[in-house]
Amino acid sequence: MHIPGDKMQLGLVTYQWGNDWDLPTLIDNCQKTGYKGVELRVEHAHNVSDKLTAIERKAVKKRFADSDVTLVGMGCNWDFHHTDPARLAASIEGAKAYAKLSYDCGGTGIKVKPNDLPAEVSVAKTCEQIGRSLNIVGAYAAGYGQEVRVEVHGKGTSDLPVIKRIFGHVTEPNVTVCWNCNSQDLDGNGLKYNFDLVKERFGSAMHVRELNIGDYPYQELIDLFVAMDYSGWILLEARTTPQDRIAAMIEQRQVFEKMISNAQAKLKDRV
Question: Distance between CA atoms of 76 and 110, rounded to whole angstroms?
Answer without folding.
Answer: 7
